[in-house]
């Protein structure tokens, strides 16, 4: 089996949409390669006279980056329309949205007017099936029949806003959010955080480096509420124990051990770096440090069990041999005693 490789990093922001980038990186293999949904039955969008959609171009989450223009839908039942928006870094999301984070999902800020009063934008957490690139699906998704309950006028405004941004900036609008891009770089290098920041001297999250509300973070984990939740869900690198985010994750390698879903930073494990640097078509299997340790412990336990079993077998064999010798000794003694008895002399 070939290792699952995500050739994405915050430093180079290489795209993984199926084509090679200028630096020679190719789309991730297996689970991370770009895929096109080929659902024979088109998807139903909108319960009230909804329109049928053709198959959508939906790459894996590793193919997106912060500030990408996207389409996203709320809910998992498939009866809500795809809405234009921007994939954001979770650090940009309001605290209430951050608290609702879900593993294996990205945070999307919808364009257009909010459906709530006193709120400028709406947000959602979207998984791989609820997300689609804006440009690749513009033709099909802009033609959706939006039911009245889903606010067709608001959808039209959102689409116009997204189209204008796409015409000016292309598929990614990071140029409009330079401060957030700079913060992403600080996440990659915690030493790059501004020392003049009044909060810089206080306790920060061990994963995302945002200031903590209290010393020690959530339950003494050293993490903010968001990272503590994602860590509990298993979305962290087992080598450095830091939570990673889909919007700004560095280069990572997926563990191929059966049942293991961990991804490891290439910079955290020498073996992971070897896999990441290997040619894309090279068939390499990778096991994360946890699985390697588990396998080593299993080997050690197997060796100990084998030694114990061998020793037990040897003791059992020695005991049987001793019992045979003892039985033979007793038989010899009985024979000797019988030959010396008066009855034996008369015989």
TrEMBL record:
Cross-referenced PROSITE patterns: ZF_PHD_2
Biased composition annotated in UniProt, kind: Basic and acidic residues: 9-26, 34-46
Disordered, as annotated region: 1-52, 326-347
UniProt name for this protein: PHD-type domain-containing protein
Matches recorded under InterPro entries: PWWP_dom, Znf_FYVE_PHD, Znf_PHD, Znf_PHD-finger, Znf_RING/FYVE/PHD
Organism for this UniProt entry: Micromonas pusilla (Picoplanktonic green alga)
rRNA processing listed as a keyword: no
Residues annotated as transmembrane: none
SMART domains: PHD
A Pfam family assignment: PWWP
Keywords for the protein's UniProt record, in alphabetical order: Metal-binding, Zinc, Zinc-finger
Domain PHD-type: 234-294
Keyword Ribonucleoprotein (UniProt): no
GO terms, molecular function: zinc ion binding
